[in-house]
Amino acid sequence: MLVLAQALQMVIQQPFMMVLVLMGAVIGLVFGAIPGLTATTGVALALPLTFALNPEMGMALLIGIYVGGISGGFIAATLLGIPGTPASIATCFDAYPLSQQGQPVKALAIGATASFMGTLGSTICLVYIAPIIANIALKLSPFEYSTLMFCALTLIATLAREEPFRGLASGFLGILLGSIGIAPIGSTLRFTFGLVPLSAGLNLLAMILGIFAIKQISVDYAEDKPIPLVDLEVKGLGFRLGEIVDNAWNIVRSFLIGLWIGFLPGMGAGLANLIAYAQAKSSSKHPEKFGKGAPEGIWASEVSNNAAIGGAMIPMLTLGIPGDSVTALLLGGLMIHGLIPGPLLYIKQPRLVNSIFGLLAISAVICLVLCYLGMRLFPRVLTIPRHYLYPVLMVLSFVGSFASNNYSFDFWIMLLFALVGMLMDMAKMPMSPMILGFILGPMLEENLRRALTYSAGSWLPFITRPVSAVLLAIAVFSLVNSVIKMRRHQALQAGKSA
Amino acid sequence: MRRLLASLLTVILILSFSWSLVGAAEYPSSTIKIMVAAKAGGATDASGRIVAQFLREQLGVPVVVVNQEGGGGAVATDSTINAKPDGYTLLYDHVNAHVRYHTGLYGVSPLELTPIATTAAVNQTIATDKASPWQTLDDLVQDARANPKKYAFGMQTGASSHFLSLALMDAADIELRLLDAGFEADKLAALRGGQLNLIQATVGAAREYVEAGIMRVLAVCATERDPLAPDFPTAVEQGYDIVFQSMHTLYGPPGLPDEIVKVISDALAKLEDDPEYIEKLHKIGHVWGYRNPEDTKAFVRNEFERIGRLAEKFGLKK
């Protein structure tokens, strides 16, 4: 633990750096908690400010925002049922029902603790095993990437277990929507209907804001749901310590999923939480409780999205390859100072690398403390009369959908998906398969087509390459397993009704 | 009384509008937006921000960067084309503008825009793994001529790196396997992993990797050596006419008046003597590359035709 201890000491000894990281974490938590404003938005806005600071101080602010932004997402997800950021989509599924059942404090406490575990754990991995993992990455080719994506895509079947037809329809709808825009390889325009804005594809954030925020607000307001009675008392940790033990395997699994997905270039916390959630549901003894306030789901989602932070930092620091959209910005923040992350960064800038390690760990602690301090305060949001709360959220959603691309076309995407969300609710189609399909579809296509150009059109390497073959076997197993469980579930339902 | 007040307010309102019209005559008088056709954090964005910062100091009005990376820059171009030609909406783009048009991703030709100035250049290199037997560009060309379609060049389909590989094949008369390998950083990984034999890398990135002892630069695709890496030989001095720079160019909407073009262009021209500006560009791997409006116009037209010819020859023209 020597390296990490030194790194921590280095950060703590610099008061200005501590102030910056604290400021960053507060800004990050606020950005994370407000629907529509994400860690990426926060870091992008703060990036120009850091040009005037030295690289270490700049990183202090940005890393604070990054960790805060990913951590803060669970607050809105828990209290409003609206993911604060795409990193917390899956958190909504169980944290919101739990808080509606009058236990917002418990849900928040789990979110805060899980976030902390994810960040700290992944930082430790970053410090000690980054070069090892980075070397594994070099060995992976598009073949492995595409089978991995395929593997992840089979999780749609898990998410769709209760309603196979509707769930799969939703998943395929997501894949179809994901194909709008410029085709990944070959650069052909697809489904753009001659509209220039559509060549950019649909904006994920605008879509999520539509499906969750605008839809939720409109439906709640129309139904005039009563304000739930909430238990605001915080006792100890907010949840039983035994729960960590009960969820030990769930936490470890979600952590590894988050670390790995964060680490793969181009993916990040936004995908990690959905995959970890689907896995947790798939291996749970009580999958039927998922979506109705199961703490397991919150653990899975929140541990994995924060684990993706350390994961994404690994390729960025060791190879100069950003693991997600935020690390791409951090890379920019270093580049403007003439620092090019890559194999030389560790040798040339040991101080900077060390302070990044320390800053990540400190940010994790700061976020945990801030979340617990706010625990009595946050749930009061639930007691604000809807006619005050909702207009504010509405405005923030519009701001958020605009801010990610600086493009007003995204308003229409958001409003359209609010409608799509309502129709899907009426048809009892689950949302999660659609979002997973939307994110994974283009990634699978890109890597599959890239792999096929590498092999000049031959499909054989998918089976002959060992890692790829193993991943395919897992995918097949996961599909078969899902079908069996689906059948069993239907038989059970049929038995009940008979 | 109330009617009088209402008419008075109306008059004031109209006056205030005309006042702003009078104000507009003296350009610049309010915030200038630079639409950057790349996402925040990348090299293009960094260079756009540096230009914005120094323009602000020169012009005395806020200059802000707006990132619109959507559609590979099509969205940013569209925003500029549809903007009022008042000098308050500008576009920051490079060779991708031509690639986008010739491959059919965006239907309006970049020649419609008003060229203002080129600002900074990024030199591109053709690089290979340190373990490769090729020492010079000629080694590669001889080997590739003997083994057509054997060696893999990592590029991103429909992006500038794609056209760089075409320029190489065109000038050296060789056939390579062009494999899509994503963005620069991904390509580096694939080169290291042995899935690719050749990649395009910016001088800035290549310098780091050469120093780390894992990469060899065969040629810089420019007429002159890059001041940031004077050791790297150019393709031209090795006898191959491959010139392929990412020349960052500032455009205005169609029909931007000459007076406004001159104000911006003159402000940029002054930066040549500003050591701080040059140092900032060098830090992100860019070099000074200013051209006045006439030269920029000629340059843009020339690039446009060059990319168009390559697109046609290799069947990418849409």
Question: Taking strands numbered 1, 2, ... along the chain, how are they ordered across the largest sheet of chain A?
Answer: 1-2
What value does the average pLDDT of chain A take? 88
Secondary structure: number of strands of chain B: 10
CATH superfamily of the largest domain in chain B: Bordetella uptake gene, domain 1
Count of folded domains of chain A: 1
Find the CATH topology of the largest domain in chain B.
D-Maltodextrin-Binding Protein, domain 2
The helix/strand class of chain B is alpha/beta
Give a topology summary.
The complex is a heterodimer of chains A (498) and B (318).
Chain A: H1 2-12, H2 15-33, H3 39-50, H4 55-80, H5 89-100, H6 104-139, H7 142-153, H8 155-159, H9 164-178, E1 181-182, E2 189-190, H10 204-223, H11 242-246, H12 248-263, H13 269-283, H14 295-319, H15 325-335, H16 345-348, H17 350-374, H18 386-403, H19 409-426, H20 432-454, H21 461-464, H22 466-497
Antiparallel strand pairs in A: 1-2
Helix pairs in contact in A: 1-17, 2-3, 2-4, 2-17, 3-4, 3-15, 4-5, 4-6, 4-14, 4-15, 4-17, 5-6, 5-14, 6-12, 6-14, 6-17, 7-20, 7-22, 9-20, 10-18, 10-19, 12-13, 12-14, 13-14
Chain B: H1 2-25, E1 32-36, H2 43-59, E2 63-67, H3 74-81, E3 89-93, H4 96-102, E4 114-129, H5 137-146, E5 152-155, H6 160-172, E6 177-180, H7 184-192, E7 198-202, H8 203-211, E8 215-220, E9 245-252, H9 258-269, H10 275-283, E10 287-291, H11 293-313
Parallel strand pairs in B: 1-2, 1-3, 5-6, 5-7
Antiparallel strand pairs in B: 3-9, 4-7, 4-8, 4-9, 4-10
